[in-house]
Automatic annotation (TrEMBL):
Family: Belongs to the methyltransferase superfamily.
Alphabetical list of InterPro entries matching this protein: Lys/N-term_MeTrsfase_sf, Methyltransf_11, SAM-dependent_MTases_sf
Descriptive protein name: EFMT4 methyltransferase
Chain's gene name: Eef1akmt4
Domain of life: Eukaryota
CDD domains: AdoMet_MTases
GO terms for biological process, alphabetical: methylation
Ranges for domain Methyltransferase type: 1-107
Gene Ontology MF terms: S-adenosylmethionine-dependent methyltransferase activity
Length: 167
């Protein structure tokens, strides 16, 4: 879900001129198409992240920024995620894996800490490796966010694979 974020346009301005953005909201996509009509390399589509309509191996990079967090918004205990939320997360990640080309990269930016998010990403069925880093300005009162990078066709570290088997 790209929402009304300027990220796609910012990427375009940095030289990434082939960017496809999706969102569940037709109104959002219509507004983004109108706002960035001057950028022909930006494409916009109404789509459900749980059932992507792109062909297999369509993308070199899939980037999500907080979209997956929506799947967990109603969870009351991040240590004990409901079977419904876990299944929804698995379904979305399976779709991401399906549309990634071999060697492709899935980048996830979230406030979700590794002990909560890595078990979802660390599924051998997705066929990707997993790395993460904490990001933030270092202020004691600041929230940190996390960057997760999955590389299609690279093996999971055995410790990460063990995390994935917990779900």
């Amino acid at each position: 879900g790209c929402g009304n974020s300027a990220l796609s346009h910012d990427l375009h301005e940095l030289g990434y001129t082939d960017v496809t953005s999706i969102d569940f909201s037709p109104a959002c996509i219509a507004a983004m198409r109108a706002r960035y009509a001057c950028c022909p390399g930006l494409r916009w589509a109404v789509m459900d992240i749980r059932a992507l309509t792109f062909p297999d191996a369509s993308f070199d990079v899939v980037l999500e920024k907080g979209t997956l967090d929506v799947l967990m918004v109603e969870e009351t205990d991040p240590w004990d995620v409901s079977p419904q939320a876990a299944a929804a997360m698995h379904r979305v990640l399976a779709e991401v894996s399906r549309v990634l080309r071999p060697g492709g990269c899935f980048i996830s930016i979230t406030f979700a800490q590794p002990h909560f998010r890595k078990p979802h990403y660390a599924q051998e069925a997705f066929g990707w490796s997993l790395r993460h880093a904490a990001c933030g300005d270092g202020d004691a009162g600041a929230f940190h966010y996390f960057l997760y990078v999955m590389r299609k066709g690279q093996p999971l570290d055995p410790r990460d694979a063990a995390l994935g088997r917990r779900l």
